[in-house]
Design goal:
Blueprint (H helix, E strand, L loop, with lengths): L2 H16 L13 H27 L1 H8 L4 H26 L3 H31 L8 H32 L6 H27 L2
Helix pairs in contact: 2-3, 2-6, 2-7, 4-5, 4-7, 5-6, 6-7
């Protein structure tokens, strides 16, 4: 075997070890276990959304009237904040791949700050609704509102913990595994996707 053939064989083995397609350079970002978790979570949330739609069709007028108590402006702001957060995290992945760890750290911090801001806005919205007497037992719409946004907020808080782990990973020169950063980004983008669907169902759909 010539040196060129040996080099090509070594590259093929390296690509296979990294899960990279030698023709396209594409690979599944992050850890496969996170993808299993994300897909399972999406199936569970899809079930919630279907149940919500069944109740909405049964009590259409009640849901429409209750929906008027939600602030579309707050929903839009929260959506923009979470989209900005996902943008920061996606750019952090790109910077990590390029070896620009300083920028990657700053972008992860930006994503985390947006996540905290989202949680604070949601807490303000809940407080506002509770002060108006709109509680979990008020009616079926608000039962779903608090349940769905509450479960989503839990995912946001868990995502902030994951982003914190990514932050410390990037700060440690002995670690800085791109797979860890991609895994954190995979989860965070799922959180963003779930909110977009929730925003459409709870705030926009008439």
């Amino acid at each position: 075997m010539t040196n060129a053939e040996q080099t090509a064989a070594a590259l093929d083995k390296g690509a296979a070890a990294e899960g990279v397609d030698d023709k396209t350079g594409a690979h599944l970002p992050g850890d496969s276990s996170m993808w299993v978790f994300v897909l399972g979570d999406l199936v569970i949330f899809s079930s919630y959304f279907i149940i919500f739609m069944v109740y909405r069709n049964r009590e259409r007028q009640l849901f429409l009237e209750s929906q008027q108590h939600l602030s579309l402006d707050i929903g839009i702001i929260n959506t923009l904040v979470l989209l900005a957060s996902s943008w920061f995290v996606a750019r952090s992945v790109q910077s990590t791949r390029a070896g620009d760890y300083g920028r990657a750290i700053r972008l992860i911090i930006g994503g985390g700050i947006c996540g905290v801001l989202f949680a604070l806005i949601k807490a303000y919205e809940w407080t506002s609704k509770l002060s108006q007497g709109l509680t979990f037992p008020s009616n079926d719409f608000f039962m779903f509102y608090y349940m769905l946004t509450g479960v989503h907020l839990f995912h946001v808080l868990l995502g902030l913990v994951i982003l914190t782990v990514v932050f410390f990973e990037l700060r440690n020169p002995k670690l800085r595994r791109i797979s860890m950063v991609e895994t954190g980004a995979t989860y965070w983008h799922m959180v963003d996707l779930l909110w977009i669907v929730l925003f459409a169902l709870l705030y926009v759909m008439r």
